[in-house]
Amino acid sequence: QEMTTIPFKNIKLFKPEDFYKEDYLGKACFSYEYKKYGFYENWKLALENLQNLPEKYKLFCELIPDKTQVKPYFDIEWYEHEFDYDNSEVLFSLTKALIKILKQEWKIDIQNKDIYVSQCHRDTRKGYKNSFHIIISPKESIIFNEASDCLFLAKKLQEQIKDSFDPSLIDLSVYKRKQ
Question: Which of 17, 59, 72, 10 is nearest to 39 (CA)?
Answer without folding.
Answer: 10
